[in-house]
23S rRNA (Uracil(1939)-C(5))-methyltransferase RlmD
Amino acid sequence: MTTYKKKPAGGPRKQQAAAAPTAIKLQVGQIAETEIKRTGINGEGIGYIDRQVVFIPGALPEEKVRVKVTKVEAKHAVAELQMVVKASPKRVEPRCPVYAECGGCSLQHASYDLQLDMKRELVRESFARYAKLPKAPVERTVGMSDPWSYRNKAQLPIVQHKGDVVVGLFQAGSHNIVDVSGCHVQHPLTNRIVQEVRDIARDLGVKLYDEKTHKGELRTVVARVGFETGECQLTLVTRTKELSHRQELVKRMAEQVPELTSIMQNVNPARTSLIFGDETFPLWGADVMEERLGDVQFSLSPRAFFQLNPEQTTKLYNLVADAAALTGKEVLVDAYCGVGTIGLWLAPKAREVHGMDIVPEAIADAKRNAEKSGITNTRFVVGAAEQILVDWMKKGLRPDVVVVDPPRTGLHPELLQALLKTAPKKIVYVSCNPSTLGKDCGVLGEKYEVKKVTPVDMFPQTAHVESVTELRLK
Ligand SMILES: C[S@@+](CC[C@H](N)C(=O)[O-])C[C@H]1O[C@@H](n2cnc3c(N)ncnc32)[C@H](O)[C@@H]1O
């Protein structure tokens, strides 16, 4: 028997809770044993107690567990894992010493092959439930050979805590800070930069920001590493433009971490949980960090969006390219294009690429990235996909292939209708949320056949599931 305590999640986020056949009779505090039947969208185990659906963070499929009910909702309950009575042979010891407290990862207790299977199963279930396609061709999840140290960016608050300087995260609903400066999913260099800033700030007595009083200066440390170029950028986010010991801090950082190529300061004077403010200026080295994905070049300013797992991003985009199967003659749309990465990846194989994103900075970056990489057959426009693409189509644009990569909420109903009306030969759907993917494919099923679905593990050790779906006009 194994005892195991993982902080219960606040409850399932847009869960696929099967409707309970009768009213919930469970009580908060109730202790029960159950077998885990499947996995919830946040990586929890799902069991049944008195025929009620119960989400249990930390429990794995096929395990028998003893739990304590912590929350009872209309159609489901949430329970805390108290003891694993019969453990899955795929249960492993979490690598991270602060796994239970941190909450950043939720699957470290599952072996990596089980994590990949669980993610495939989540995608399968979504297609069965929402698209009514129980036999959707869902491939094996594309994983990493080494599913650790994959994140190229760390952004962490730096705070005074119990008389010391700590870089970490506040545990949800408590004043405990969890030191995550040695995080196992971060690239070691981002960890080293963060630790050096902490040590030097401690040594120099830099004034640290205090959320409660809204006083102090240095608030967040952002470290980003270029996996391809080896360049490194440190951004010090401060409340005030002034930063005590700035010169010495910058000098020591440049000496201690010779890999650094850029040190920037961003000023965020607001009482907000957003990381960055509007003003950014250089302190040392270059203003931007250079990075490459394949042949595409990116100059990244501190606020620029860039995929966090470069190794898997390349695999993801290659899957999109395979699904699009371009010959050089196609008109391609990259909807929800961000900084244009997918469109730029595919541009050499298409006649023209039209992309749009709602964030103006992303579109400015997309245009700059195209220019830097010498790509001339793309146009990127600021605006909502459901307006711009619908408008383009009304004006006669007839794309051969439409790539969509929406946020978790999925495709806007108007966009879905416009796609059905214009009927491009192919739609490639990149999704970070299997539930909305399943629902949208259910709507598109009126005219499209799901040819292939490939889950890609962009965030190992977490329950996050990304996937590429090829839809072909029937
Ligand atoms: C999952 S990201 C995809 C980014 C990009 N394809 C990539 O691979 O880096 C979703 C993008 O959709 C954008 N977005 C959100 N709502 C939008 C909307 N209604 N219309 C267009 N873009 C939107 C966000 O700004 C974000 O860049």
